[in-house]
Amino acid sequence: MKQLLKKAGLVIAILMAGGLLRSPLENRLETRLVETHLLFTPPAKNVLDVLGQESAMAVLGGMRSVVALYWQLMAISDWEYQEWDDLAKKFEIAALLTPRDTDMWIKYAWHIHTNASASVFDDASMTEPQQYLAADDYIEQGIGILYRAVKQMPDSVDLQMDLAQVLREKRQDYCGAAEAYKRALELEGHPAYTTRFYGYMLAKCPGREREAYEHLKMLWFEDEKHHMPSMRRDLADLEVKLNVPEALRIPGLENQDERFSRQRSGQPEVP
Length: 271
Prior knowledge:
The protein has helices spanning 2-20, 24-35, 45-51, 53-60, 64-80, 84-97, 102-119, 128-152, 157-170, 174-185, 194-203, 209-222, 229-241, 258-261. By secondary structure, it is mainly alpha-helical. The protein is elongated.
């Protein structure tokens, strides 16, 4: 670990020196890149104060992504020692420096909503109710981080998909997950299963059963690749909830594996 951080510091020092030698021509180029949104404007003065003199010079020299990576590396020890507040501070600096780094945001949120929330159950100084409250708070913080990331990058499929998964698994917020999947569907590069999962979440969102049924039914007749056990289950359940007349129901939905018939309230298939 020390060697890794030492290497990161050496890289920053080298790049910092190179950055300080920039010519006026390069500075004009940077200005042009900022104007065309290919590069972000330098961080505010208070952010540079947080970074310290050496890191600040590297940032001003154009090495922002390297400095951000350094702070992420620094957060690794906080993860190992479960120092979640310190980890969050370091990731916040990385986020300020590279606000469009999708992987950084996902990693940051994961540490909080999964690792931090799980770690509280190892804290013997807390009562069980306190542990659950603390875990719940960390999950909310992690989800909040993802919402901030989505606001920064609404065009990121990865962020929308990650947000949907966390809302579904950590919160059972099926309505929120449905909206995240819906936004992902509007973006290029979304996984093929996204449209099914959108329907699965709608089916569990109170008041949207009809919408879910129409969407899943469309997929059912669109392509046999959608004939998953989860879709069979949800369509059959929705037809009961919506009192669809027998004559109008989709034939063959009940001809499914017995295992799935006994698990009608189960989760959708794993992508």
